[in-house]
Every structure is written in C-alpha cells, then in structure tokens.
Amino acid sequence: MKALIQRVSSASVRVENKTVSRIGKGLLVLLCVEKGDSEADAAMLAGKAARLRIFENAEGKMGLSVLDIHGEALVISQFTLAADMSKGNRPSFEKAEAPEKAKQLYKLFVKELSSAGVPVKEGVFGAHMDVALVNDGPVTIWLETGE
Predict the structure, then answer these.
(1) Which among 1, 18, 13, 25 has a CA at the least distance from the CA of 137?
(2) End-to-end C-alpha distance for the chain, whole angstroms
(3) What confidence tens digit (pLDDT) does each residue in 26-66 have?
(4) Which of 31, 62, 65, 122 is most buried (most C-beta within 10 Å)?
(5) What tens digit of pLDDT does each residue of 71-125 get?
(6) What CATH number does the domain containing 97 carry?
C-alpha cells in the first residue's frame, strides 16, 4: 500500500463539477492499494499517517501531527501510484489491486484514520476527480508498507 501525503492549508475534490469534499489545514492523502496488500497494511499506514509529525511546533520545526493541530484529512483513491514504468513510456498498472478489494482496503484505511481521531473526508472511489490543494511548505511525504 502506498500513500503520498501532502501537508495542506486546504484541499478539495470535485466530481462532475460538484464539490464533494473540502478540508482546511491538514493532510491530503493519495492512497494506492496494490495486489497483496492486507487489512494490517491499511491499519498500519493509517496509524502512521495520523502520527506523522510534519506540522510546525512552537520552535518552527516539524514536530506536530495532524492530531496535535486538530487538522483534517482528505483521502483520495489513486491507483496510478502503482504505475510500473520499467518497459517503455506507457505505464502499466498491473500491480494495482482489483477495484472491489481495493475499495474495501481504502474504506478500512479511512475508518482506521478516523478511529485514530482524525476527521476524514473522502473523494469518490473510482470516479474522475478534480483535486485542488494548497500544499503548505511544500511538504510531501511518501509512505509505503512493506519497507
């Protein structure tokens, strides 16, 4: 499982020209479920995201988590993070999990992140989405299970 996490001042997602979710200060999480990922991977990654200390403390250093700042998270499914570019210029997405199982693990990640105390909003799984964000920093962190 992979997550590209961005520290944001705000973020939103639109589907068919309608805003479906919006957050203020917090995390934008682009989440990719790959073949072989498990419920344990979803729980571990959600916990890591909740505790990730990438917000500035009183000394101006990254020392606070989204929980510490009472921020929010916007979680977007992103199967393209499974892209394999080892052969040519057209990405292969064979490593991405089938939609039904991917959605189950995506929903579990959202549930675990919420259970950790982070208010979570979502995109629409499998939809074409327009995602807007203000990356604060910029700060962008790559998390992956199995490392």
Answers:
(1) 25
(2) 10
(3) 999 999 999 999 999 999 999 999 999 999 999 999 999 99
(4) 31
(5) 999 999 999 999 999 999 999 999 999 999 999 999 999 999 999 999 999 999 9
(6) 3.50.80.10
pLDDT, one tens digit per residue, over 125-139 is 999 999 999 999 999
Per the structure, the count of domains in the chain is 1
145 is catalytic: no
Q: Name the residue range of residue 34's domain.
A: 2-144
Catalytic residue among 19, 80, 140, 145: 80
CA pair distance 28, 42, nearest whole angstrom = 16
57-93: string of b/e by CB count within 10 Å (b at 16+)? Answer: eeeeeeebbbeeeebbbbbbbbbebbeeeeeeeeeee
pTM, 2 dp: 0.95
Residue 147 has pLDDT above 60, yes or no: no
